[in-house]
Amino acid sequence: MASGKRENEVQGPGMGDQIEQVDATVLQYQNQKLIQQLEAQKAEMHALEGKFKDLRDKQISYDNTLIAVNKMWNQLVDDLVLFGVRAGGELRCLQALEHEDFSIDDALASCPPEEIFLCRLLRSGYVDKNRGSISVKAVQEALSLRHSAIVDLMKHLQEAIAARLARNELLASALHGNLSSEDAIVQLRNHNGYLREVISNMREAIDVVHLKHNRFTDEISCYIDNHSREQSEIKHLSGDLEESMAELEESRRKLVILQMQKHGPSFINASIGIAVNGSISLDKPADKTMSWRELKDSVDEAKTLAASRLFELHEAQEDNLILSKQLEELQSQLKDDKYVILSKPYSLLDDQLHHLTAELERYKGLTEFLQADRNNILQREKELSTKAESADSLKISNSNYESKIEELELKIQKFINERNNLEIKLEETLQDTGRKDFKDEIHVMASALSKEMEMMEAQFNRYKDAACEALSLREEANSLRVLLEKKTLEHKTLSDKCAEELVEIKSLKALLEKLENEKQELQTYLEMYGQECFDTRTIMEIKESENRARMQAEYLRTVLDEHNLELRVKAANEAEAACQQRLSAAEAEIADLRAKLDSSEREVLELQEAIRIKDAEGEAYIAEIETIGQAYEDMQAQNQHLLQQVADRDDYNIKLVSDSVKMKQTHGILLFEKQALLKQLQQVNASLEISKMKVARGEEQ
Questions:
Q1: Residue 264 has pLDDT above 50, yes or no
Q2: Per-domain residue ranges for the chain?
Q3: pTM of the predicted model, to two decimals?
Q4: Helix 644-663 vs helix 436-528: crossing angle, to nearest 10
C-alpha cells in the first residue's frame, strides 16, 4: 500500500510536468501563429498605406490640374468681360466676374474620390446617385453650358466691336466733310452721348473691379490673421506636447526602475524572461539535485511573481495607452506641420492664395489700363468741347465781321458822296480863284498824299507780319508749355515708379528672410513631432526594440539632417540666385529710369530756355508794334490839316489798326479792307486825274 502510494506520488508530479510541457508548447504554437498573423496584417497595412499614398498623390495632381484649368478659364472669362466693357458693351456681363469658390463645396462630399476632379471642373455635385458615377451626358451638358457662356461673351464682344467700328466710320465721314454741317453736328452730339455712356460704363466696371479687389484684400488679410493665430496655437500645443512627452519619459523610467527593483533571484528572472518570451527549452532536463517539492514551490512562487508582474505590466500598458491616446489627441489637434503642408485643404488654400494674388495683380494692371483709357477719353472729350467752343466763337466772329463789312460799305458810300461834294466845291473854287497857285497846291497835296499812302501801306504790311508772327510765337509758347507739363508729369511718374521698385525690393528681402525663418521653424517642428508606437511586449523586448529604434532614429536623424541641409543649401542658392536676378533687373531698371529722368530734366531745361527766349522775342515784337502804333498816331496828328475826306480816311485806318490789334488772326477781313483802301486810292487817283484835266482845261481857257 505504501509502495503504491509512493508510485502514485511519483507518477503524479510526472504527469503534471507533462501537462505543463504540453500547455507551454501549445501556447508557443499559438503565439507563433498570432505573430505570423500580425506580420501579415502589418504587411497588408503597409500595402494599403502605399496605395493610399499613391491615390493621394494622384488626387493632388488632379487638384493641381483642376486649379490650373480653372485659373485659365476664369482669366479668359474676365478678359472677355473687360474687353466687352472697354469696347462699349453693356454692363450685364459684369456678373461673370463673380466666380464661385470651388475649394469649399458641400456637394463634393457625395462624389466618389475618383470623380472629384470632374465634379469640381464642372461645378456640379453628385449627378447619378444610383450608379455611383458621373454620366457622360451630364459631363457633356455641363461642358456645353460653360462653352455656351463663353460663346455668348464672344458674341457680345463682337457686337460691341462692330458697333464701335460703325460709330468710328460715321464720325470719320463727319470729320472729313462727307456729311452736311447739320448732320455732322448731330453725329458729333450722338458720339458725345455715346462717349459719356461708355465713360459711365467704364466707371461702373472700375467700381466693380475695385470692390472685388477690396474683397480679395479682406480675404487675404483674414487668411494672414488665421495663419498667425494657427502658428501661435501650434507653438502653444508644441509646448504642451513637450511637457507630455517629458512626463511620459519620466513615467517610463519610473516603470523600469520599479520592475528592476521587484525582480527576484537571477534564476527566477531568467526563467520568467524565457517563459514570457515564449522560448522555453523543453529539452533541458531539470536539476536532479532539487527535489520535486522545492521545484513546485519555486514554480508556484514564479507564477505568483509572474502574475503580479503581469498585473503591473497591464497597468503600465493601460497607462501607456492612456498617454498614447492623449498624445494622439494632441497630434490630431496640432496637425503635424508635414501633414498640414501635405494636406489637401492646405494645398487648396495655398493655391487659392496664389490665384488670388495673381488675380489681384492682374486686376491692378487692368485698373491702371482702364484709368489710362479713361484719361485719354476725358482728354478727347475736352478737345471736342474746345473745338465746339472755337466753332461757336468763329460763328460769332463771322457775324461781327459781317456787321463791320456793312458799316464799311456805308462809310464808303458816304466817302463817295463827300468826294462828289468836294469835286463840286473844287470846280467852284477853280472858277473863282487863281489858277496857278491852286495848281501848285494841288500838286503838293497829291505828292504828299501819295507818299503818306505808301508809308501807310508799308506800316500796315509790317504790322500785319508782326501780328502773324506774334500769334505763331504764342502758339509755339503754348505748345512748349504743354510739352513742359507732360515732361514734368513723366518725371513724377518715373520718380514714383523708382520709389515703388525700391520698396518692392525691400519687401522681397524681408519676405525672403521671413520664409527662411519659417522653413527653419517647420524643420524643427518636423524633427520634434515623432509618433510613438506601443506594443504589448515584455520588458526585455521593449528595451531591445527601444535601443534598435533609438539607433535607427539617430541614423535617420543624421540622414534627415544631411538631406535637409542639402535642401536648405539648394533652396538658399536658388533663392539667392533669384534674388540676385531680380536685384540686377531692378538695378538695371533703376539705371534706365535715372537716365530717362536726367534726359527729361535736360529737355525741361532746354524747353524753359526756349520759352524764355520766345517770351523775350514776343515782348520785343509787342514793343515794336506799340512804337509803330505810336508813330502812326503821331503821323495822323500831324496830318490833321488835310482835307476832311483824308482825315476821315485816316480815322478809318486808325480804327482798322485798333481793331486788328484787338481781334487778332483776322487776315481775311484785313485783306478785304486792303482791297477797299486800294479801290479808294484808285478813286482818289482818278479824281486827281480828273482834277488835273479840269485844271489843264481851265489853264487852256
A1: no
A2: 394-476+620-700
A3: 0.32
A4: 0
